[in-house]
Each structure stands twice: as C-alpha cells, then as structure tokens.
C-alpha cells in the first residue's frame, strides 16, 4: 500500500488506514470503520495534538476552574490564560474550554425532563383540575438548593456588609469635626482599615455571587433548550406548523435569554423589605422621624409607579415576542425559498411584508424602550429625591445638618435606592419577561406529540364499518404517554417470548418478542381505518381504508394528487393517529400468523421530498448505523451512486452542504433512498423515490434496488411511475382517501375496472414492455446501460470543495472598531449632548451647605437644591428618551439595510451560508440590538459620566489625588483594552457557536418524519448531537460571563485601592483645616464609585458583547450584490411580445476559481417553440435556467437575447417578471392563498379564481384568504405545483420555463399540467426540463445537454434517426414502446 503524507485531512479520505502522529506517538486507525456520524476525528497539526471526538473517548480542554487552587479561585486567576491568548493572537473555537460537569446539556436536560414528567403525572392524576403543568415548579425543584445558597450570600451582603459600611464612614467623618479633636489619628486609621476590609468583602462576595447566579441562569437556559429540542423530536406533524423553525429559533434565542440574568435580582424581592426595615432603623438613629418621610418617598416612587411601568413592560414583552416570531418565521421561509423568490422577482413584496411586520415590532419595542428609559431615569432620581425629602424634612423640623448625619444617611439611602429603585424593578421586569418566556415554552412543551404505539382494541363507529369476512384479531395504533422507543433496537433487548393461540384466527399474539425469526416477514392489514390530520374535519384524510400487504411483497400505492397516499405511509409510521378501524401487523405466512406489536417492527422510510443534512454523503447514508463496508458498497451500487462518487472531489466523503445544496435533485433523491435501503429493516415505506430521477435511472433503481437488493423484504412504494405496476406483487389504488381497489395487475386488468382508464392515460404500455424485455436487454448492451455505467461525468452546480471551504463562519478579530459605533449612531440619526453637570453642581451645593462656615443660608440652600433637583428630573428624562429614540432609529435602519442587502445578494451567498447562520442574524443578533443594547448603553454612559464627576470632586478637594487618578486611569485603560480584545473575541465565538444550534434545529424540523422512523437510536444520536453543539456554545458563554466578572472584579479592586488612598490621605495629610463636609463628600463619592462600578462593569461588558451583534449585522449590510435591478432604459411594457430566445456563446461558472458549468452554449429558439431540455444528472439543464434568470451574477459570459434585447442590458426586476417559471420544488409561503398567487395585488378576484379553475383547484379551497401553512404543508406536492402553474397563468408571459415541474407528481397531474400548458401557452415559447421523456416528445425541438454543452438540438423525430445519438439512447432506456411511437 502506497503511503500518503499530509498535513490536511482531505487527502487521506480515500485511504484505508489513517496514521496520526503526535509527540512521537503514532496511532493507527481503520479509516473506513472510524468515519461515521457519531464518531469522527479532528486533527490539529499546528497544535501538535489530535483527539477522537467520540463522547466516551473525548479528550477536551478541561475548564481551569476545576483545577484552580483557592487563591486562583478567589481572585479569578484561572481566567488569566484565556486573557493572555486573547491579547496575543485572538481566540479560536479550539481555545474554548469544555463546560463544567454540572453545566453539561445532557445532564441538565435529563434532570429537567424528569421533573417535567412529574408535572405531567400530576395533571394526569387530576384530569378535572384546571391547573396546568408548571415549568416553574419543575425548575424550582431542580435548582432550589443552589438558588437558596446564593440567597444566603445576598443576605450577608445586603443586610450586613452594605449597612455596616456607612457606619464606618460616619466614624471616619467624625474625625474631621471642628473644634477639639476627640478621636486620635490611630483610631481614625483603624476605621479606614476596617472600611477597606469591608469594601474588599463586598467585592469578593458580590462578584462570586454574581458569577454563580449567572451560571445558574445559564443552566436554566441550557435545560430549557434541551427540553425544547427533545419536545421537537416528539412533535405531532399537525402541530409542527405551530413549531415552525422561526418560532423555535426565537424560543432558543430570545426567550431563553431572559433566564441568564433573572436570578441576579430575584432574591431582592424578599430581601428588600428586610433591608428597608434595617436601614430605616439605622437612619432613625440619625434623623429621627424624618426617616419616615424619606422611606415613604422612596416607596411611593418605586412600588406604585415603577410597578405599574414594569407591568406594562411585561405586557409589551409578550406582544413583542409574537411579532418577533412572525418576523423570524417570514425570514425562515424567505431564506428557504430564496431562489424561487428571485426567479419570481418577489423581492419587493417580501420587503413590504417584512417591513410591515418589522414596523409593528419596532413600534412595540420603542414603547418598551421608552419605559426602560423612564425606569433608568427614575433609578437615579429616586436616590436624589429621597435624600432631598429626608434632609429638607429634617431641616424644616428645626434640626441642624452636619456632615456626620448627612453623608452616612446619604450612603444608606443610596444603598436602599440601588435595591428598591434599580434592582427591584429590574427583578420585577426580568421576572415578568421570564414568566412570559416560561409560558411560551410551556405552551410549546404541551403541544401534541406522536405517541408510542401499543396493541389495543378500539371499536369502530357506526357508519364506518364494512363487512369483513376475515375473522382475525387486529391491532390498532393507540397513543400512549411514555412508551420507550428503545424496543425498536432488537439487538438491545433479550425479552422473554409469550405466545397465545387463538383457535379461530390462527394468529399468535407475541408480546415483547425480539428474535430474528420475525425479521423480514412482516405483513400489514388495515380494516375500515379512518384517520384525520385535522380533528373533526369532513371528509377525513383517510376514510374506510381496508387493505392487505403480504409479507415479503412489493406493493405499490397509486392515485391522483392529494388522494392520501403519503398519509397512508404516515399512518403506518404512527405519525397519523387512527381515528377508527383496525391496523394489524403480523409475521409469518400461510394459515399460521404471528401478531406482533408495531413498535417491535423495524421500519425504514424515505420521504417524498429528499432530506439531507450538512454532513458528508456517507454520513447521510449511514445516519448513525454501523459502517458495513460490503453492504454500503452494494447499497451505493444499486442506488446508482458509484459514478457520482467518482466525480465528486472527495467521493462519498464530500460535504453536501445545507439541505444538500451541492447535489442535484436526482442525486439528493438517490442519497435519500440509499439511507432507507442501507438500514436493515422489516418494513420499507418508500414515498415516491423515483420521481426526481431520469427515466433510465428510475428503471435501474426499481430493478436493482427495489426488486433486487430488497427482495424478500416487505415494501410499500408510493409512485407515479406506473410503467412499473405490472412488475409488482400488489397494487393499491387510492382516491380521495379511500382504497378504490387492490390486487395484482392481472386481477385489475381482468376485472375491467375504471382505474384502467386512468392507467391508459399515462401513455405507457406495460404489457408490451414486459413482452419485449429481452429486446430491451439487447438495446441496453448497445447503449452502455450496464447497471452503473449509464452515468456520465457530472459537474455539480456548486463545488463540494467550495462548500467545505465556506462552511465555517468568518470570525472577526481584535477590538470592535470605532467605525462600528460610528455606524450605529449615524444610523440612529440623532447626536446629542449628555447632561451631567447638574450632578456635580448638586453635590457641590451640599458640601457648601454642610461645611462649618456655611457658604449659603439655609433658605437659599433649600432653594438651590430644589432648583437643581427639578433640573435633574428634566435632563435625566430628556436624555433617556432622546437616547432611546436614537437607538430605535438605529435598530430600524440597520435591520432594513441588512434585509435589503440580503435580498440583493446573489444565490452563491445562500448556497455557501447555512440557513441557521443567516437566521441567527435576524433572531438573536437583532434581538440583542433591539432590546438589550440600548438600555445597557444608556446605563453605561450614565455611569461613565458619574465616574468622571467623582474624579473631579476628589481632585478638587485633594489636589494630590491627581496622581492616583492618573495611575488608576492608566491601569484602567490597559485592563480595559486587554479585556476588550478577549471579551469581544469570546462574544464573536459565542455568536458563531450558536449558529450550529439553529441549523441543527432547522434540519431536524425538515426531516422530522425521517428521523423518528429511523428509531430510538437515531433520535438519541441527534439529541446527543444537539447537546454537544449546545455544550460548545455553553463553553463560549461561560467564558463570556467569567471574563466579564473577572474584569469587574479587577476594576472594583482598583476603586477599593483608590478609596483607601483617599481616606488615608485625608487623615495623614490633615492639618486641621480640612472641613468635615468636604471629607464626607469625598468619602461618599469614593464609596459610591465602588458600588457604581460593580453595576457599570456588567453593563459595559454587555455593551461590548451586544455591539458584537451589531458588528455581525453590519457585516450583512455589505454583501455582494446582484444587479442592476432597474435601468434608465427599461424594455417596453409589452416585452417580450414574441418569445424569440437566442443564446450566443454562453458560458457560466459559479465562482471564478471553479470550472464552467455551461460551455459555449449557442442556440436560436424561435417564437412559439416548445423546447424540451433533457440530459443526465448534472448535465447543465438547471444551469441553463440559472443563466436565463441571471442568478450567478458576474459568472455569466456571452449574450442571451430575448426578442432582440440583450438581457444583460436590462435590470433584474425588468427581466425576471417577464419570464414565467414553474420550479422543480414548488414553494408556498405561510400567508393567504391570494398572497401566494398575487403578492403585488395586480389581479382581481375573478382572475385569481379563473387561474385556480384552470388547474382544477377551484373546488379545493373555499376562499382566496385560505391560510397556507409553512411550506404549503396543507397541500400535497402536486397541488403545490398546480398553484405554481396558476401563478404562470396569471402572468401570461410569452416565455414559460418548466424546471422538472412534473418530477414529483402523479401522471394525471402531469397530464393536467401538460394539457394546460398546451392550451394556455399555445402561442408562447416554452422551455421544459424533463425527466420523463414522453412529456417532451411532442415538442418542436429537443435540446440534449451533457457536461454543460449542447450535444443535440433539433426536432425529436430527426434526433431519433441517429441510432447512436444520446437522445435515442436515453429514450431506448425508458421503454421500447415510447421509442417506436414517439407521437
């Protein structure tokens, strides 16, 4: 074996053995066994280390807090390594530590799930009780012990140290009393030392307590997110529309974010009354009955006024959440269907609808922000007002104010102010918002679930009963609350077998049987089954369904669009509950059958719409199953994937991108089928897997895979490929939810039933095909169709290498530039001066009043203080409202700019960026910019100016203090710069780590049925994957709060040093002339700085982190753009009037460094021609349409003329609306049917109804205002395609494109579309990309493409004259009948 030496992983993917070397140690891996979804390798050669990421063998980066010594823990020294890395080189994902063991997602999710089940059990025991399960009580039982321990620390802090601090302050001020010194200097120094130790105690307890409470809040968030995802895995399909990706994204971003900070203040609700009583008692000792006036003033300002405001704020939060849900949901649908939006030129309607929703949302957010501004202003004014009322009352009672009375009382009142006016309202507001979030999460957790299935007997209501000659014991599906799906894993269960014999039926009832003897012999019987997706809807989705499926048989379900074929599969999967009737599962054949429980059956399912997730192709096929090389190779062969693997850059290890963006439609369908086939199951449910592939590929899949590889298994196939019906064991025809007939093909033909009329319309003659199969075999030999040799080299529409290169989100480095702040405030449109001089003037007036000589008379001093107090009210409120208005303008303008830029971005951007990453900008980042940033920034600026005022006061009275002020300012600057680099880097990583969580949720929602049908093992695997992704985010978030706390701790230590310096300087430098009022003012301001910084640092860190969200959003305001959209010389309104289309040497590539996907294409399509475009997978058919619609931007070369006008010379909004298209994947949006047909409101109701009648949907809906579910979930795929045809009929353009529009629908709907196109577009130019060659045989021209080039172009009858032509070869592979009789 030839070795390969590499520093990158990709070259090793094609090797059998992987050798990893690190620190002179070499480890050998069997690569083929190593690589699977649940076990993969990450190699970091630059770091010289490697690790196996399997959970059991994982060697992650252990959090240094777990190994820190006491001193390092006490002073947050364990955070220094992360600061050091952040300063030196910036941080990467690999630098983040693993979460602490107590913070891991899986443990927290398990614990909360257990507590939540207790709540559900209570509800089940008391069904008549109005009490709903309480998520609050579940969380309380989970976290009450650590929560109460934090409460004890709050008591020590707020009822002990904080109150004793002003007492020490009064002792120190008494040293400066005029007259004879009664206190020795040493005693005063001892008091200063005591004050310093108290301040240090406050700092240590406060910051450690803050970190711990934030950690608890984080744990609540993690547990709730884990529960939300687990619930998502169990959601009933009928409720999925209530749990759309946008709403779930909002739940796991904005809603759960309320838990991060709520615990910081929640204890104050019960501590505040105790603190008020204790502080009131201490103040009483100084000012007597005047205490009542001050405390009453504070209570009046806080409880009635602020309580009312917080109540209004909570109501607004609930309304805001609903509007945000709506906006994010629209964005989710827009991102998913962006290609259709661009081809329809629907950017403007979406811009209008998003703007309308955003306007309502921002209006509510603005009201909430103004309330926050009022609350912030009242926080500051409450302290001043209370102090003002207390002192004025004390003076008016005839008492003399002294510094020993005023400043300690002011400090105590400030402490009470912080609790009552600042933290208590915040606690109430946060609790209210958290309560709204808890209610929303609880409502989500109470949505209907898909229950486990259990064998029971259910009576059939009268009117739904048919005579049944077979007297057998039946099984129906029953909802059971907590059935363990692990019973699906046979190899994990060793249960005893219990068999009961029924004399009259010959069926054995087997309970908990898991032996191999049951495998591959599953039979199914349905008797008079009725089922409904919507409760009480008439007629039901399935009505009086009776059928039998024999074991080891291949049965086909056929029927028109919307007849209930997919619903039948969902019924057998347990996704659709049985309303009436009986469903039986049995094993064995002949007269003796074994009845088995449905949950003991291993089912494999493939969905109608291919579902792929962001991983390698092999991961998508294995989907958690063990890698069996022999079986894997055989599966890829029978699913016609071998040649595709040879053409992909890394073969089957190539990354497929978001939703399989790197693969063609046919490739996605085959990978989707391969996943189902690879699983060794008892029952295979295959929902139309042949529709999206070429005719010859479909035949290969049917013969080699469905009839060959799966031979001996029970298979139920939904298909519209009716040419295969005579080769199956059983045919089930469904119409309007009822089984019309069932039997073999010969039985149906002999019966002469009307269904044969339907079969005849398909233009296929299966009998003749069967007679001439030997001739087909000869033909296959001459046309190179031996199994997998029929595939030519392909060129994927997007390079896999490109997908891998761009799959990682770009990480900004360094400190956020001033340009980000400048852009933010310029977007706000208002720049104003912050007023803070009134604060300094107010404090200076106090000092002059209380000094011994009294610079002001009492009456004048009262008037001055009153005037300053009134001025403070005015300026604080004005400042808050203006600032919030600026922030709201900024949020609105930046969001609109980002959204408009996103609409203008080329398709390449959407193909190389996961939907979760884009959605993260519009949910989490916009939420942070809207609600968190403005309040935090306002409070930070307020505190910043307060600190400047404190420094000015201290320097004024103690000029020598300028030295420590300069030193502290320098150190503060260095610490801030160091911290900012690290904090912003961590915050960026936190935002990036959140995107995979959104992507994982969105991907799970898309493939929910496939996931659940894969069994408990896969469900557990995806749950573990979610937990791992959440743990990665937890590691980033914990470092965010830890570094923020450490930063605050460092700054508070600086302020403590400054306070100690000032106090010692006052005493040591006192020459007897220093006034007590001045000393009291200086000490009070220094103490205030410490408590202010404790709060200000948190807000400062929040501003820095939230500005990262602004930075991420601003990145999306400078995306590459398509265009131009409009030009100065638009084409005439009647253009194109003919439909004359000319391609002149057109080449196209998706990226400058990628090979072209179209190569020198030239052709002339005359007006009115019907042109069929055919070719094998990856031949360039869809790329041709992309070139016509100019979806690739600058990657297009050559000229395309439409009615003589070069399409490059006109704008996109002038080109795309003039071309009608029916896309391969019909996209509908969650809006009214009217909006889906006519978002511009250009047509009358009668025209809309006419278009629906043209496509035979006039009777399917009752109103044009009929609400369409997300993705059109309440319509079948065929009906969605018909709605797309109705759109084209409305536009009535001269050029129509059908991009494999009939690939996923039955032949009757195909015939309806074809006949409608011929009738309504008879004089129009029509381009049809088709898999079914019979749909283009009557076209004027057929364009055959291969490898991005035109191979053949001409009338179909002339092309067929060339026996060696590619079109002839493809047609021969479809059927001999069609080849000989093309007309």
UniProtKB/TrEMBL annotation:
GO terms for molecular function: ATP binding. SUPFAM superfamilies: ABC transporter transmembrane region (SSF90123), P-loop containing nucleoside triphosphate hydrolases (SSF52540). Residues 151-416, 867-1109 form the ABC transmembrane type-1 domain. It is a multi-pass membrane protein. This is ATP-binding cassette sub-family C member 4 isoform X4. Keywords: ATP-binding, Membrane, Nucleotide-binding, Transmembrane, Transmembrane helix, Transport. It comes from Neodiprion lecontei. Signal peptide: none annotated. The chain crosses the membrane at residues 188-205, 262-283, 289-309, 388-410, 860-878, 936-956, 1046-1068, 1074-1097. It is found in: Membrane. Residues 524-761, 1141-1372 form the ABC transporter domain. CDD domains: ABC_6TM_ABCC_D1, ABC_6TM_ABCC_D2, ABCC_MRP_domain1, ABCC_MRP_domain2.
């Amino acid at each position: 074996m030839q070795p390969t030496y590499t520093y990158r992983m990709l070259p090793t993917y094609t090797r059998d053995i992987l050798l990893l070397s690190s620190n002179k140690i070499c480890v050998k891996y069997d690569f083929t066994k190593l690589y699977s979804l649940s076990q993969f390798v990450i190699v970091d050669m630059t770091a010289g280390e490697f690790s196996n990421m399997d959970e059991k063998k994982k060697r992650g980066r252990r959090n240094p807090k777990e190994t820190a010594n006491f001193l390092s823990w006490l002073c947050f020294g364990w955070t220094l390594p992360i600061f050091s890395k952040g300063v030196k080189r910036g941080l990467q994902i690999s630098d983040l530590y693993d979460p602490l063991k107590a913070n891991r997602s899986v443990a927290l999710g398990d614990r909360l799930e257990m507590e939540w089940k207790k709540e559900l059990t209570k509800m089940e025991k008391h069904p008549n009780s109005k009490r709903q399960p309480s998520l609050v009580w579940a969380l309380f039982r989970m976290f009450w012990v650590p929560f109460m321990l934090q409460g004890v620390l709050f008591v020590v802090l707020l009822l002990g140290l904080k109150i004793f601090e002003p007492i020490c302050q009064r002792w120190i001020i008494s040293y400066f009393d005029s007259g004879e010194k009664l206190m020795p200097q040493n005693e005063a120094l001892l008091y200063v030392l005591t004050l310093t130790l108290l301040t240090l105690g406050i700092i240590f307890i406060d910051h450690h307590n803050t970190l711990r409470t934030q950690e608890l809040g984080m744990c609540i968030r993690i547990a709730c997110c884990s529960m939300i995802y687990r619930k998502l895995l169990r959601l009933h399909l009928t409720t999925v529309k209530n749990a759309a990706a946008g709403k779930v994204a909002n739940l796991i971003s904005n809603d759960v974010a309320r838990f991060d900070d709520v615990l910081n203040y929640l204890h104050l609700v019960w501590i505040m009354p105790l603190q008020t009583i204790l502080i009131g008692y201490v103040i009483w000792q100084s000012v007597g009955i005047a205490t009542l006036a001050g405390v009453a003033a504070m209570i009046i300002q806080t409880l009635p006024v602020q309580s009312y405001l917080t109540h209004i704020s909570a109501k607004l939060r609930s309304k805001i959440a609903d509007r945000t849900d709506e906006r994010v949901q629209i964005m989710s649908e827009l991102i998913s269907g962006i290609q259709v939006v661009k081809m329809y030129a629907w950017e403007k309607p979406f811009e209008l609808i998003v703007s309308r929703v955003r306007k309502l949302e921002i209006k509510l957010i603005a009201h909430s922000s103004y309330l926050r501004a009022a609350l912030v202003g009242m926080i500051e004014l409450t302290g001043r007002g209370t102090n003002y009322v207390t002192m004025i009352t004390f003076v008016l009672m005839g008492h003399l104010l002294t510094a020993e009375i005023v400043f300690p009382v002011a400090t105590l009142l400030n402490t009470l102010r912080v609790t009552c006016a600042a933290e208590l309202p915040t606690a109430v507001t946060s609790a209210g918002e958290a309560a709204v979030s808890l209610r929303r999460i609880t409502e989500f957790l109470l949505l209907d679930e898909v229950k486990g299935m259990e064998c029971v007997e259910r009576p059939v209501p009268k009117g739904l009963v048919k005579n049944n000659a077979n007297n057998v014991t039946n099984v129906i599906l029953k909802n059971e609350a907590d059935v363990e799906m692990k019973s699906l894993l046979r190899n994990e269960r060793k249960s005893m077998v219990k068999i009961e014999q029924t004399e009259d039926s010959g069926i054995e009832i087997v309970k908990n049987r898991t032996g191999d003897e049951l495998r591959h012999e599953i039979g199914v019987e349905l008797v008079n089954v009725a089922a409904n997706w919507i409760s009480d809807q008439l007629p039901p989705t399935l009505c009086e369904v009776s059928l039998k499926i024999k074991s080891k048989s291949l049965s086909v379900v056929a029927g028109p669009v919307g007849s209930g074929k997919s619903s039948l599969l969902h019924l057998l999967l347990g996704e659709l509950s049985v309303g009436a009737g009986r469903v039986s599962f049995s094993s064995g054949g002949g007269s003796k059958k074994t009845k088995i429980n449905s949950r003991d059956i291993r089912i494999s399912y493939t969905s109608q719409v291919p579902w792929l997730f962001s991983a390698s192709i092999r991961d998508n096929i294995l989907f958690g199953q063990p890698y069996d090389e022999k079986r894997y190779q055989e599966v890829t062969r029978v699913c016609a994937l071998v040649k595709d693997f040879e053409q992909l850059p890394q073969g089957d290890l190539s990354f497929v991108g978001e939703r399989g963006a790197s693969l063609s439609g046919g490739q996605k369908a085959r990978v989707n089928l391969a996943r189902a086939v690879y699983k060794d199951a008892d029952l295979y449910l295959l929902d139309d897997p042949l529709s999206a592939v070429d005719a010859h590929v479909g035949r290969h899949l049917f013969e080699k895979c469905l009839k060959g590889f799966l031979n001996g298994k029970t298979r139920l196939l939904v298909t519209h490929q009716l040419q295969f019906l005579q080769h199956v064991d059983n045919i089930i025809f469904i119409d309007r939810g009822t089984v019309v007939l069932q039997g073999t093909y010969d039985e149906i033909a002999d019966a002469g039933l009307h269904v044969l009329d339907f079969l005849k319309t398909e233009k296929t003659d299966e009998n003749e095909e069967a007679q001439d199969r030997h001739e087909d075999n000869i033909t296959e030999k001459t046309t190179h169709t031996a199994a997998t040799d029929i595939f030519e080299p392909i060129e994927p529409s997007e390079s896999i290498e490109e997908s891998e290169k761009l799959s990682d989100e770009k990480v900004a480095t360094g400190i956020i530039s001033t340009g980000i702040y400048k852009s933010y405030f310029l977007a706000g449109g208002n720049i104003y001066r912050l007023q803070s001089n009134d604060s300094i003037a107010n404090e200076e007036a106090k000092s002059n009043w209380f000094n011994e000589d009294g610079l002001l008379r009492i009456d004048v001093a009262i008037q001055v203080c009153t005037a300053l107090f009134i001025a403070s009210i005015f300026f604080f409120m004005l400042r808050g409202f203006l600032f919030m208005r600026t922030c709201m303008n900024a949020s609105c303008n930046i969001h609109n700019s980002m959204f408009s830029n996103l609409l203008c971005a080329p398709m390449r951007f959407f193909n190389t960026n996961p939907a979760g990453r884009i959605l993260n900008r519009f949910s989490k980042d916009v939420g942070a910019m809207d609600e968190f940033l403005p309040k935090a920034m306002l409070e930070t600026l307020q505190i910043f100016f307060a600190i400047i005022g404190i420094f000015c006061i201290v320097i004024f009275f103690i000029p020598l203090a300028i030295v420590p002020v300069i030193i502290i300012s320098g150190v503060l600057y260095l610490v801030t710069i160091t911290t900012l680099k690290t904090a912003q880097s961590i915050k960026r990583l936190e935002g990036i780590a959140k995107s995979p969580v959104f992507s994982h949720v969105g991907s799970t929602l898309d493939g929910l049925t496939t996931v659940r049908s894969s069994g408990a093992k896969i469900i557990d695997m995806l749950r573990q994957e979610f937990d791992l992704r959440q743990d990665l985010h937890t590691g980033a978030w914990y470092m965010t709060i830890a570094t923020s706390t450490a930063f605050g701790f460092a700054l508070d230590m600086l302020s403590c040093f400054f306070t100690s310096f000032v106090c010692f300087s006052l005493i040591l430098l006192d020459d007897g002339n220093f006034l007590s009022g001045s000393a009291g003012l200086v000490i009070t301001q220094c103490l205030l700085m410490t408590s202010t910084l404790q709060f200000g640092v948190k807000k400062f860190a929040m501003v820095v982190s939230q500005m990262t969200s602004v930075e991420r959003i601003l990145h999306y305001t400078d995306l590459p753009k398509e265009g131009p959209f409009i030009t100065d010389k638009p084409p005439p309104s009647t253009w194109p009037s003919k439909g004359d289309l000319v391609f002149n040497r057109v080449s196209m590539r998706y990226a400058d460094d990628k090979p072209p996907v179209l190569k020198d294409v030239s052709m002339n399509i005359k007006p009115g021609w019907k042109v069929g475009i055919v070719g094998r997978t990856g031949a360039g058919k869809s790329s041709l349409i992309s070139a016509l619609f100019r979806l690739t931007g600058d990657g297009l070369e050559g000229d395309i003329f439409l009615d003589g006008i070069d399409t490059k010379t006109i704008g996109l909004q002038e080109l795309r609306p003039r071309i009608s298209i029916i896309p391969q994947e019909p996209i509908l949006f969650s809006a009214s049917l009217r909006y889906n047909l006519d978002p511009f409101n250009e047509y009358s109701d009668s025209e809309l109804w006419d278009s629906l009648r043209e496509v035979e949907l006039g009777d399917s809906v009752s109103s044009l205002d009929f609400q369409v579910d997300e993705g059109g979930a309440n319509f079948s795929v065929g009906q969605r395609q018909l709605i797309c045809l109705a759109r084209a009929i409305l536009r009535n353009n001269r050029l129509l494109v059908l991009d494999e529009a009939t690939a996923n629908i039955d032949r009757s709907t195909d015939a309806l579309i074809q006949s409608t196109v011929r009738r309504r577009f008879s004089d129009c130019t029509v381009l049809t990309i088709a898999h079914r060659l019979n749909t283009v045989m009557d076209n004027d021209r057929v364009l055959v493409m291969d490898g991005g080039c035109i191979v053949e172009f001409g009338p179909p009858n002339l092309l067929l004259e060339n026996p060696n032509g590619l079109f002839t070869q493809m047609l021969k592979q479809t059927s001999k009948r069609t080849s000989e009789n093309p007309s």
